[in-house]
Protein backbone atom coordinates (compact mmCIF):
# COMPACT_ATOMS: atom_id res chain seq x y z
CA UNK A 1 0.00 0.00 0.00
CA UNK A 2 1.26 3.44 -0.84
CA UNK A 3 1.32 5.74 2.17
CA UNK A 4 0.68 9.45 2.02
CA UNK A 5 2.33 12.18 4.02
CA UNK A 6 0.08 13.87 6.56
CA UNK A 7 0.42 17.58 7.10
CA UNK A 8 0.56 19.04 10.58
CA UNK A 9 -2.98 19.70 11.75
CA UNK A 10 -4.18 23.15 12.61
CA UNK A 11 -7.36 22.03 14.38
CA UNK A 12 -10.30 24.20 13.41
CA UNK A 13 -8.03 26.81 11.85
CA UNK A 14 -8.21 27.63 8.17
CA UNK A 15 -5.61 26.19 5.77
CA UNK A 16 -2.80 28.62 5.06
CA UNK A 17 -2.65 30.15 1.60
CA UNK A 18 0.56 31.44 0.00
CA UNK A 19 0.24 34.63 -2.08
CA UNK A 20 3.49 35.61 -3.85
CA UNK A 21 3.77 39.36 -4.29
CA UNK A 22 4.28 40.03 -7.99
CA UNK A 23 5.66 43.47 -7.12
CA UNK A 24 8.80 41.58 -6.10
CA UNK A 25 9.03 39.51 -9.29
CA UNK A 26 11.42 40.17 -12.15
CA UNK A 27 9.31 42.57 -14.19
CA UNK A 28 11.61 42.09 -17.21
CA UNK A 29 10.73 38.38 -17.17
CA UNK A 30 7.37 38.38 -15.42
CA UNK A 31 5.91 35.63 -17.59
CA UNK A 32 8.67 33.20 -16.58
CA UNK A 33 8.21 34.02 -12.88
CA UNK A 34 4.45 33.53 -13.10
CA UNK A 35 4.91 30.16 -14.81
CA UNK A 36 7.33 28.99 -12.11
CA UNK A 37 4.88 30.05 -9.41
CA UNK A 38 2.04 28.28 -11.21
CA UNK A 39 4.08 25.06 -11.20
CA UNK A 40 4.49 25.48 -7.46
CA UNK A 41 0.68 25.58 -7.19
CA UNK A 42 0.55 28.83 -5.24
CA UNK A 43 -2.89 29.81 -3.95
CA UNK A 44 -3.05 33.48 -5.01
CA UNK A 45 -1.10 36.18 -6.80
CA UNK A 46 -0.83 39.28 -4.64
CA UNK A 47 -0.85 42.45 -6.76
CA UNK A 48 -0.03 45.83 -5.22
CA UNK A 49 -1.46 48.83 -7.05
CA UNK A 50 -0.01 52.19 -5.93
CA UNK A 51 -0.69 55.75 -7.02
CA UNK A 52 2.39 57.59 -5.73
CA UNK A 53 0.17 59.61 -3.36
CA UNK A 54 -1.21 57.30 -0.68
CA UNK A 55 2.23 55.67 -0.65
CA UNK A 56 5.38 57.28 -2.10
CA UNK A 57 5.92 54.67 -4.79
CA UNK A 58 4.45 53.16 -7.94
CA UNK A 59 4.17 49.39 -8.34
CA UNK A 60 1.93 47.42 -10.68
CA UNK A 61 -0.82 49.10 -12.69
CA UNK A 62 -4.48 48.20 -13.14
CA UNK A 63 -3.74 47.51 -16.81
CA UNK A 64 -0.96 45.03 -15.99
CA UNK A 65 -3.13 43.36 -13.35
CA UNK A 66 -5.86 42.88 -15.95
CA UNK A 67 -3.40 41.25 -18.36
CA UNK A 68 -2.07 38.97 -15.63
CA UNK A 69 -5.62 37.94 -14.79
CA UNK A 70 -6.28 36.96 -18.40
CA UNK A 71 -3.09 34.89 -18.62
CA UNK A 72 -3.34 32.77 -15.47
CA UNK A 73 -5.82 30.57 -13.66
CA UNK A 74 -4.37 31.52 -10.26
CA UNK A 75 -6.81 33.83 -8.42
CA UNK A 76 -5.72 37.44 -7.96
CA UNK A 77 -5.44 39.23 -4.63
CA UNK A 78 -5.63 42.95 -5.40
CA UNK A 79 -4.24 45.35 -2.77
CA UNK A 80 -5.13 48.99 -3.43
CA UNK A 81 -2.60 51.45 -1.98
CA UNK A 82 -4.34 54.45 -3.52
CA UNK A 83 -6.21 57.57 -2.49
CA UNK A 84 -9.93 57.53 -3.18
CA UNK A 85 -10.20 53.82 -4.10
CA UNK A 86 -13.86 54.45 -4.93
CA UNK A 87 -12.60 56.02 -8.16
CA UNK A 88 -11.28 52.61 -9.26
CA UNK A 89 -14.36 50.41 -9.02
CA UNK A 90 -14.52 50.00 -12.80
CA UNK A 91 -10.89 48.83 -13.19
CA UNK A 92 -11.48 46.32 -10.38
CA UNK A 93 -14.56 45.05 -12.20
CA UNK A 94 -12.50 44.46 -15.35
CA UNK A 95 -9.71 42.69 -13.48
CA UNK A 96 -12.14 40.31 -11.71
CA UNK A 97 -9.92 39.52 -8.73
CA UNK A 98 -10.85 36.96 -6.10
CA UNK A 99 -9.89 39.41 -3.34
CA UNK A 100 -9.65 43.20 -3.18
CA UNK A 101 -8.51 45.26 -0.20
CA UNK A 102 -8.23 48.99 0.44
CA UNK A 103 -6.74 50.98 3.31
CA UNK A 104 -9.22 52.22 5.85
CA UNK A 105 -7.61 55.69 5.82
CA UNK A 106 -7.88 56.04 2.05
CA UNK A 107 -11.62 56.75 1.85
CA UNK A 108 -14.20 58.70 3.80
CA UNK A 109 -16.90 56.11 3.11
CA UNK A 110 -15.43 52.65 3.73
CA UNK A 111 -18.78 50.91 4.33
CA UNK A 112 -20.21 52.19 1.05
CA UNK A 113 -17.02 51.21 -0.78
CA UNK A 114 -16.97 47.70 0.72
CA UNK A 115 -20.54 47.16 -0.44
CA UNK A 116 -19.71 48.46 -3.93
CA UNK A 117 -16.80 46.04 -4.28
CA UNK A 118 -18.87 43.17 -2.90
CA UNK A 119 -21.50 43.87 -5.56
CA UNK A 120 -18.81 42.90 -8.11
CA UNK A 121 -18.72 39.40 -6.63
CA UNK A 122 -15.28 39.65 -4.98
CA UNK A 123 -14.10 39.03 -1.43
CA UNK A 124 -13.61 42.44 0.23
CA UNK A 125 -11.08 43.38 2.91
CA UNK A 126 -9.48 46.40 4.50
CA UNK A 127 -5.79 46.86 5.15
CA UNK A 128 -4.47 48.07 8.49
CA UNK A 129 -1.10 49.82 8.58
CA UNK A 130 1.15 49.00 11.57
CA UNK A 131 0.07 52.18 13.37
CA UNK A 132 -3.63 51.92 12.45
CA UNK A 133 -5.58 50.91 15.57
CA UNK A 134 -7.79 47.85 15.41
CA UNK A 135 -10.67 50.02 16.61
CA UNK A 136 -10.94 51.21 13.00
CA UNK A 137 -12.70 47.88 12.33
CA UNK A 138 -15.42 48.35 14.94
CA UNK A 139 -18.20 49.60 12.65
CA UNK A 140 -16.81 48.07 9.49
CA UNK A 141 -16.02 44.45 10.32
CA UNK A 142 -19.49 43.11 9.49
CA UNK A 143 -19.03 44.30 5.89
CA UNK A 144 -15.74 42.48 5.40
CA UNK A 145 -14.74 39.04 4.16
CA UNK A 146 -11.18 39.39 5.43
CA UNK A 147 -8.66 41.79 6.97
CA UNK A 148 -5.13 42.51 5.71
CA UNK A 149 -2.64 43.36 8.47
CA UNK A 150 0.51 45.14 7.33
CA UNK A 151 3.66 44.20 9.24
CA UNK A 152 5.68 46.96 7.54
CA UNK A 153 4.76 50.45 6.39
CA UNK A 154 3.20 50.07 2.92
CA UNK A 155 4.94 51.13 -0.27
CA UNK A 156 8.30 49.37 -0.43
CA UNK A 157 9.61 45.80 -0.44
CA UNK A 158 12.46 44.65 1.77
CA UNK A 159 11.58 46.58 4.94
CA UNK A 160 12.13 45.21 8.44
CA UNK A 161 9.31 43.25 10.04
CA UNK A 162 7.65 45.12 12.95
CA UNK A 163 7.34 42.55 15.77
CA UNK A 164 4.73 44.49 17.73
CA UNK A 165 2.20 43.79 14.99
CA UNK A 166 2.03 40.10 15.97
CA UNK A 167 -0.19 41.10 18.90
CA UNK A 168 -2.43 43.03 16.51
CA UNK A 169 -2.83 39.88 14.39
CA UNK A 170 -4.05 38.02 17.46
CA UNK A 171 -6.51 40.81 18.27
CA UNK A 172 -7.87 40.97 14.72
CA UNK A 173 -8.23 37.17 14.63
CA UNK A 174 -10.33 37.32 17.80
CA UNK A 175 -12.49 40.11 16.35
CA UNK A 176 -13.11 38.17 13.14
CA UNK A 177 -13.96 34.95 14.95
CA UNK A 178 -16.30 36.76 17.34
CA UNK A 179 -18.45 38.07 14.50
CA UNK A 180 -18.30 35.38 11.82
CA UNK A 181 -16.34 32.16 11.57
CA UNK A 182 -13.86 31.21 8.85
CA UNK A 183 -12.96 34.68 7.66
CA UNK A 184 -9.46 35.07 6.31
CA UNK A 185 -6.71 37.12 7.93
CA UNK A 186 -3.98 38.15 5.53
CA UNK A 187 -0.51 39.33 6.57
CA UNK A 188 1.86 41.31 4.36
CA UNK A 189 5.38 42.58 5.02
CA UNK A 190 8.83 40.94 5.25
CA UNK A 191 7.53 37.47 6.04
CA UNK A 192 10.46 35.12 6.32
CA UNK A 193 9.70 31.59 7.50
CA UNK A 194 10.21 32.38 11.19
CA UNK A 195 7.86 35.39 11.24
CA UNK A 196 5.40 33.56 8.99
CA UNK A 197 5.12 30.71 11.51
CA UNK A 198 4.45 33.22 14.30
CA UNK A 199 1.80 34.94 12.21
CA UNK A 200 0.08 31.63 11.43
CA UNK A 201 0.16 30.69 15.12
CA UNK A 202 -1.49 34.06 15.84
CA UNK A 203 -4.31 33.41 13.38
CA UNK A 204 -3.09 34.40 9.91
CA UNK A 205 -4.49 32.33 7.03
CA UNK A 206 -3.02 34.14 3.97
CA UNK A 207 0.69 34.94 3.79
CA UNK A 208 2.02 37.44 1.25
CA UNK A 209 5.46 36.19 0.23
CA UNK A 210 8.07 38.62 -1.07
CA UNK A 211 11.81 39.21 -1.08
CA UNK A 212 12.50 37.66 2.33
CA UNK A 213 10.92 34.32 1.44
CA UNK A 214 10.68 33.72 -2.33
CA UNK A 215 12.13 36.36 -4.61
CA UNK A 216 15.86 36.05 -4.01
CA UNK A 217 18.46 36.63 -6.69
CA UNK A 218 18.95 33.48 -8.72
CA UNK A 219 16.36 31.47 -6.78
CA UNK A 220 14.09 29.01 -8.55
CA UNK A 221 10.63 30.20 -7.50
CA UNK A 222 9.02 26.78 -7.68
CA UNK A 223 11.59 25.30 -5.31
CA UNK A 224 11.52 28.40 -3.09
CA UNK A 225 7.74 28.11 -2.70
CA UNK A 226 8.02 24.46 -1.70
CA UNK A 227 10.74 25.24 0.82
CA UNK A 228 8.75 28.17 2.29
CA UNK A 229 5.68 26.00 2.72
CA UNK A 230 7.71 23.17 4.28
CA UNK A 231 9.31 25.54 6.78
CA UNK A 232 5.97 27.09 7.73
CA UNK A 233 4.63 23.59 8.35
CA UNK A 234 7.67 22.77 10.47
CA UNK A 235 9.16 20.35 7.94
CA UNK A 236 12.72 21.54 7.32
CA UNK A 237 13.83 21.19 3.72
CA UNK A 238 17.09 19.66 4.90
CA UNK A 239 15.28 16.45 5.92
CA UNK A 240 14.19 16.01 2.33
CA UNK A 241 17.64 16.78 0.95
CA UNK A 242 19.08 13.98 3.11
CA UNK A 243 16.91 11.54 1.24
CA UNK A 244 18.80 12.13 -1.99
CA UNK A 245 22.32 12.29 -0.61
CA UNK A 246 24.73 9.63 0.55
CA UNK A 247 22.99 8.70 3.79
CA UNK A 248 21.27 5.41 3.04
CA UNK A 249 20.25 4.94 6.68
CA UNK A 250 17.87 7.93 6.88
CA UNK A 251 15.36 7.54 4.09
CA UNK A 252 12.49 10.00 4.23
CA UNK A 253 9.18 9.24 2.55
CA UNK A 254 8.27 12.63 1.28
CA UNK A 255 8.46 15.26 -1.37
CA UNK A 256 11.46 17.05 -2.76
CA UNK A 257 11.86 19.96 -5.14
CA UNK A 258 14.95 21.24 -6.84
CA UNK A 259 16.34 23.43 -9.52
CA UNK A 260 18.49 21.90 -12.22
CA UNK A 261 21.50 20.11 -10.85
CA UNK A 262 23.26 16.82 -10.36
CA UNK A 263 23.72 14.76 -7.19
CA UNK A 264 25.50 11.54 -6.29
CA UNK A 265 23.22 8.81 -4.96
CA UNK A 266 23.98 5.46 -3.37
CA UNK A 267 21.47 2.98 -1.96
CA UNK A 268 23.11 0.10 -0.09
CA UNK A 269 20.30 -1.69 1.75
CA UNK A 270 16.79 -0.67 0.74
CA UNK A 271 15.10 -1.08 -2.60
CA UNK A 272 13.30 2.16 -3.46
CA UNK A 273 10.26 2.86 -5.61
CA UNK A 274 10.00 6.41 -6.89
CA UNK A 275 7.34 8.29 -8.81
CA UNK A 276 8.40 11.50 -10.49
CA UNK A 277 6.25 14.50 -11.35
CA UNK A 278 8.91 16.03 -13.57
CA UNK A 279 11.77 14.99 -15.83
CA UNK A 280 14.86 13.36 -14.36
CA UNK A 281 17.82 11.29 -15.48
CA UNK A 282 19.46 8.46 -13.56
CA UNK A 283 22.94 7.33 -14.62
CA UNK A 284 24.62 4.34 -12.98
CA UNK A 285 28.36 4.04 -12.49
CA UNK A 286 28.17 0.99 -14.76
CA UNK A 287 27.14 3.28 -17.63
CA UNK A 288 23.39 2.67 -17.96
CA UNK A 289 21.26 5.76 -18.49
CA UNK A 290 17.53 6.15 -17.87
CA UNK A 291 15.30 9.19 -18.41
CA UNK A 292 11.94 9.37 -16.65
CA UNK A 293 9.10 11.77 -17.35
CA UNK A 294 6.01 12.96 -15.48
CA UNK A 295 3.97 10.13 -13.99
CA UNK A 296 6.65 7.45 -14.43
CA UNK A 297 7.36 5.04 -11.61
CA UNK A 298 10.66 3.21 -11.30
CA UNK A 299 12.69 1.16 -8.86
CA UNK A 300 16.19 1.89 -7.61
CA UNK A 301 17.49 -1.48 -6.39
CA UNK A 302 19.71 -2.00 -3.39
CA UNK A 303 23.34 -1.66 -4.31
CA UNK A 304 22.74 1.04 -6.92
CA UNK A 305 25.43 3.68 -7.25
CA UNK A 306 25.37 6.55 -9.71
CA UNK A 307 24.09 10.06 -10.23
CA UNK A 308 20.68 11.70 -10.12
CA UNK A 309 20.24 14.64 -12.50
CA UNK A 310 17.35 17.09 -12.62
CA UNK A 311 16.82 18.23 -16.21
CA UNK A 312 13.80 20.46 -15.73
CA UNK A 313 13.47 23.61 -13.64
CA UNK A 314 11.33 22.14 -10.89
CA UNK A 315 11.03 18.44 -10.18
CA UNK A 316 9.02 16.82 -7.42
CA UNK A 317 9.78 13.23 -6.50
CA UNK A 318 7.58 11.12 -4.26
CA UNK A 319 9.32 8.27 -2.50
CA UNK A 320 7.51 5.08 -1.59
CA UNK A 321 9.25 2.36 0.39
CA UNK A 322 7.15 -0.59 -0.72
CA UNK A 323 8.18 -1.32 -4.29
CA UNK A 324 5.51 -3.90 -5.18
CA UNK A 325 3.38 -1.49 -7.22
CA UNK A 326 2.60 -1.46 -10.98
CA UNK A 327 5.47 0.19 -12.81
CA UNK A 328 5.30 2.09 -16.08
CA UNK A 329 8.98 1.46 -16.78
CA UNK A 330 11.41 -1.33 -15.93
CA UNK A 331 13.67 -1.26 -12.93
CA UNK A 332 16.93 0.66 -13.10
CA UNK A 333 19.90 -1.67 -13.49
Question: Which descriptors would you attach to this protein?
Answer:
disordered N terminus, 8 helices, eight-stranded parallel β-sheet, alpha/beta, 333 residues, four-stranded antiparallel β-sheet, 2 domains, 16 strands, elongated, TIM Barrel, disordered C terminus, 24% strand, Jelly Rolls
Fold and architecture overview:
With 333 residues, this protein is of the alpha/beta class. It folds into two domains: 17-232, Alpha-Beta Barrel (TIM Barrel), CATH 3.20.20.70; 238-320, Jelly Rolls (Sandwich), CATH 2.60.120.10. The chain has helices spanning 30-39, 62-71, 89-95, 110-118, 165-179, 193-201, 221-232, 237-243; strands at residues 17-20, 45-50, 76-81, 99-103, 123-128, 146-150, 184-188, 206-209, 255-258, 261-266, 272-276, 280-284, 289-292, 297-300, 305-310, 315-320. It has an eight-stranded parallel beta sheet with strand order 1-8-7-6-5-4-3-2. It has a four-stranded antiparallel beta sheet with strand order 9-16-11-14. Strands 10-15-12-13 form a four-stranded antiparallel beta sheet, with no helix packed on it. α2 packs parallel to α3 (89-95) and α6 (193-201) packs across α7. The two termini are 24 Å apart.
Question: How do you describe this structure in short?
Answer:
By secondary structure, this protein is an alpha/beta fold.
- Overall mean pLDDT stands at 79
Tell me the number of strands: 16
> Order of strands across the biggest sheet?
1-8-7-6-5-4-3-2
Please state the structural category.
Answer: alpha/beta
Order of helices and strands: EHEHEHEHEEHEHEHHEEEEEEEE
